[in-house]
Write the structure tokens for this entry.
Amino acid sequence: MAITEQISLINKQLNDSPARLIVVTKTRGIEELQETYAAGAIEFGENRVQEMVEKQAVLPKDILWHQIGHLQTNKVKYIAPFIHLIHSVDSLNLLKEINKQAAKNDRIIDCLLQIYIATEESKFGLDFSEADALLADSEFAGLKNIRIVGLMGMASFTADETQIRQEFQSLADFFQKLKNNKTGLSTGLVEWIELSMGMSGDYLIAAELGATLVRVGSAIFSPRH
Ligand SMILES: *Cc1c(COP(=O)(O)O)cnc(C)c1O
């Protein structure tokens, strides 16, 4: 019941923005995912491959699965048959493996480039110049079974709203620059559509600043035991 109410509350809050809700279901049990689905949500985000694969096997097939956490190249093959969108592409090497596994499954897999916008020490994501370099790489241009459809970023873990705004704004500005410059469009592998930013603590700020996808977990579910 609480899950249903939270989802409808968030969807109402997002009504005036282009942002869609991805329900982050990581660490949640099958019953909670079934309740989420019953509430009408069909876009689920997971960050661990094995957990996603196990859940995908037993849940309705019209759920759209989003890989939001760091993805190791040796795990790509497990999600390649069904994954809807991979948010966490942070290297050409990973992209090549996604391309290879997508080809094996005779499909094209949509991806976002994960951009590093937080000030804190973190392991994952490209900076702006690394993203530019990837998109200009001749090896990238040769891929056939992936599509880059946008960017993903995470703000610093801080209560300082000004800082969070600055970080999201920097990602939104970079997204706009790629759009304006039609970066990568000549490869036929790129469309600048999705901007994935915002979590439980900051999704309203993200939506205000142009997010098209927000990834919300803990604000929907009761605290983990
Ligand atoms: C866990 C996670 C989320 C959701 O975080 P909440 O604070 O629970 O809403 C969003 N994005 C990523 C990449 C995550 O790992």
